[in-house]
Write a structure and sequence with these properties.
Among the domains are: 22-117, Rossmann fold, CATH 3.40.50.20; 123-360, ATP-grasp fold, B domain (D-amino Acid Aminotransferase, Chain A, domain 1), CATH 3.30.470.20; 361-468, no CATH class. The protein is 32% helix and 22% strand. It contains 22 helices and 34 strands.
């Protein structure tokens, strides 16, 4: 049918040839549909794909038409534009193997005068509630049903429907959110669960709508009928028996077997009902997957899927009947007349089986013998999950590990062979730690934690997945680079922050990683991208949140709450290092040498009068030497309180410490394990050439500004004319500070050395600059020992992965 008019298909001159023919495939679907597009290419077709973006199917696609398939107007306009730009191309047929795009494929067939199912018909069938209404209007046996929109509808169902009932989405697929309700008191709870959780993010076919309805539960044998239909005539059919689909109150596909073992009369009734429905709907051409129940009252149609059935349908029909559904579906779509002699005896009896774990969790073990195919009864296997992936069973989600098909000389033989095959496949899925409170709080009912559990599992799975990565497979990771990115301007700190993030991203991308640059300055957007993307690891170089370095640790805390693996120190360490008062307290507790000190929050706070002038007064929770000037070194009480007043006006606590006149050292350290830390060559800053009135410190101007005196500060990498004994002492103190503060992957310790060669720790930076354009910082120190910038970044990634492998798991 086309545009509502019947269209007969004439046999082409070359009945079996596909070369020179062009098929428009609407949506590649997920990678589990790879076999469909591989088959299209093997048939010699030119393949045009209408899809939102280019993806894994790239090797099999001749032309892409990129458009949002959920926006039908945009998609059709994109096809028109493509054809206008490529007048040499003629589309011979349209097809989809993806439930989400059944309606769009029908609209395309209507618009471009191609063979297909009219949109008016497809819309009626795609919506299961409307399909029930159609059956009722045409006196076809149908369960009592009712659409739910509000509490009044629930009340009506309470008073007028017999239990048990089945609640389901009108546009769902794969049994997602289909629930059996045995008692009326469970109705409201289950409706709230479906209403709150139903989403295209869980089941993409729900993009077409989120309507929910209930219907009478029909007790009987459930079957699938796969049909090839051309010019209104059924050219082939296959009836398969479904195994028990129940898992508690939920419905989950367990397995199917063909040919059907039901009585011949029952099978005839099933086929007759399917034929009647297709004829009354006006469906003339296509590959159709029909689901029904054979009860003691007769045949109840469940749904009509206007595309080839999913998972192992193609596999077991080809194995049992030697009928290639993809090939024939294409022939029907392009107008190639088909003639099939309906087989009565199968080549093989085949059982298809879905692999489900007992619980939602993370796949931590999958063992399939390499020689499993030596067992001739193994027809085909597909695994959709790899180690580290989450798998969601109801109420958390509606997934499975994969499937296999097994054959035998008869139904019982095939079932026996299935038992043998299942014993050969070992997999383990772990759920949450039973001792953890995650997902156990604020449960209003048995369904309320479903989304929470799912989100936590996804995040925990990212960490679990890292545990299976080795150094040779790093480039398989998708890396998110989270940094602060500013427009090019005059602020040197902002420019360097931007530089660090963009250089890390560019370098990793050039080394072959899949990367995504995330701007912490646009915090909500960064969070949304992290939540929705398939990022495996965040390379965290963000230094500010809401433009304030004091909140830097909150960024790491966010990543931890999402359970997104990331490089660098955790929120606790970052918080300690940012708050110099707590930092000093911990140094003192561990007896690590640091200048004597005190602090205030208000000007009237007492200050230790045993501190000896000159003193260094500075903000206690800023970075980049902000708030530090030459006047920060004070010689008496008047100067001290003048500086303290400035700091308090900045709304910062003030740190007061004894001034150390001497050289400053930067010590960069790589690693996590105390036995495997690497100390890079030391940086030394010498202030002796500064004018007599300038103090031997880095001010904001000498570090970032245009102060000409910065050129008089001598920087040595490595230090010259410094005894090995002093370098060793500095290194050992730095290592103590690094380990006591539990730094991760890399960090910097700053130490001042007085005129008597006494070292004092003054600062810790757990996330030092990673810029590669200035002759300073960790990149320059690493380069001195033969580690180039790209290698340094990869070492940091590898150290982070190894760290996550060793950490206490969130699941077991």
């Amino acid at each position: 049918m086309q545009n509502g008019n019947q269209k007969l298909i004439s046999p082409p001159e070359n009945q079996n040839g596909f070369h020179g023919k062009t098929i428009l495939l609407v949506n590649t679907g997920s990678i589990k549909k790879r076999f469909t597009i591989q088959k299209l290419k093997k048939m010699g077709l030119k393949v045009i794909v209408l899809n939102k973006e280019k993806n894994w199917a790239q090797p099999y696609v001749d032309y892409w038409i990129l458009a949002d398939n959920t926006n039908h107007t945009e998609a059709i306009q994109a096809i028109q534009s493509f054809l206008a730009s490529n007048p040499q191309i003629k589309i011979d047929g349209v097809i989809t193997f993806w439930e989400d795009d059944v309606l769009l494929a029908s609209k395309i067939a209507d618009k471009f005068n191609l063979i297909g199912i009219p949109f008016t018909v497809a819309k009626k069938v795609r919506n299961k509630y409307l399909f029930r209404e159609f059956c009722k209007a045409n006196k076809i046996l149908t369960p009592q049903h009712y659409l739910i929109k509000n509490q009044a509808d629930l009340d009506y169902i309470y008073n007028n429907f017999p239990f048990p009932l089945v609640m389901k989405p009108a546009y769902g697929s794969s049994s997602a959110f289909v629930i059996r309700i045995d008692k009326c008191e469970d109705m409201a709870e289950m409706y709230q669960y479906v209403k709150n959780n139903i989403s295209p993010n869980v089941e993409s076919s729900l993009t077409d709508g989120l309507d929910i309805f209930v219907e009478e539960f029909i007790d009987g044998d459930e079957v699938d009928i796969d049909i090839l239909l051309q010019n209104g005539k059924i050219k082939f059919f296959s009836i398969a028996d479904n195994y028990n689909k129940g898992k508690g109150i939920f419905f989950i596909d367990s397995g199917q077997s063909i040919p059907s073992n039901l009585p011949v009369k029952t099978q005839e009734d099933l086929l007759s009902t399917a034929e009647e429905i297709l004829e009354k709907l006006g469906i003339q051409n296509g590959c159709v997957h029909f689901e029904a129940k054979a009860s003691n009252k007769g045949v109840y149609p469940i749904e009509v899927n206007l595309r080839m059935g999913g998972d192992y349908i193609y596999s077991y029909i080809k194995g049992a009947w030697n009928i290639d559904l993809i090939e024939y579906a294409v022939k029907i779509a392009i107008g190639d007349y088909i003639k099939i002699r309906q087989p009565y005896i199968p080549k093989k009896y085949i059982v298809g089986w879905d692999l489900h774990p007992e619980n939602s969790g993370v796949l931590v073990e999958l063992d399939v013998p390499e020689d499993i195919k030596k067992n001739r009864f193994i027809e085909e296997m597909q695994f959709y999950k790899t180690i580290g992936d989450p798998i969601f069973l109801p109420p958390d989600g509606f997934e499975h590990l994969g499937w296999l098909t097994v054959s035998g000389e008869n139904v019982l033989d095939a079932q026996d062979n299935l038992e043998i095959a299942l014993k050969l496949i070992a997999f383990k899925v772990v759920k949450f730690d039973s001792d953890s409170h995650l997902g156990k709080t604020a449960r209003k009912d048995r369904f309320s934690p479903a989304v929470l559990n799912k989100n936590l599992l996804v995040r925990a799975a990212k960490i679990e997945a890292l545990k299976s990565i080795d150094a040779n497979n790093l480039k398989k990771l998708k890396i998110g680079i989270l940094g602060n990115i500013y427009p090019k301007g005059d602020d040197p700190v902002e420019n360097l922050l931007t530089e660090s993030a963009t250089q890390v991203e560019e370098t990793l991308r050039n080394k072959g990683y899949s990367t995504l640059l995330l701007n912490a300055n646009d915090f909500s957007d960064a969070v949304e991208k992290i939540r929705k993307s398939d990022i495996d690891l965040i390379f965290n170089v963000a230094e500010r949140l809401y433009n304030d370095p004091a909140y830097k640790s909150n960024i790491a805390a966010l990543l931890e709450s999402f359970q997104i693996p990331y490089t660098g120190s955790d929120a606790f360490t970052l918080s300690l290092a940012t708050d110099k008062i707590r930092f000093k307290k911990l140094l003192a507790y561990h007896e690590i040498p640091t200048p004597d000190w005190d602090y205030i929050y208000e000007l009237d706070d007492e200050i230790d009068d045993e501190l000896e002038y000159p003193l260094f007064a500075k903000p206690s929770n800023t970075d980049y030497s902000i708030g530090i000037t030459n006047e920060s070194i004070v010689h008496n009480k008047k100067e001290l309180y003048s500086q303290l007043e400035k700091i308090v006006k900045m709304k910062r606590p003030a740190l007061i410490e004894e001034y150390i006149d001497g050289d400053e050292y930067e010590i960069y350290i790589l690693g996590n394990d105390i036995n495997d830390l690497k100390v890079l060559p030391l940086y030394r800053s010498i202030f002796d050439a500064l004018p007599q009135d300038r103090k031997h410190i880095y001010t904001f101007e000498t570090k970032w500004g245009n102060d000409s005196l910065k050129e008089k500060i001598i920087r040595q990498l490595p230090p010259k004319n410094v005894s090995q004994k002093l370098q060793t002492l500095i290194t050992e103190i730095a290592l103590d500070a690094y380990t006591i503060f539990d730094c991760k992957d890399y960090g910097k310790i700053e130490i001042k050395v007085d005129k008597d060669n006494n070292p004092y720790v003054i600062e810790l930076n757990p996330s030092p600059w990673l810029s590669n354009t200035q002759d300073k910082g960790i990149a320059a120190a690493a380069k001195l020992v033969g580690i180039d910038y790209g290698q340094l970044l990869e070492q940091i990634i590898n150290m982070a992965i190894e760290r996550y492998k060793k950490q206490h798991p969130t699941i077991k």
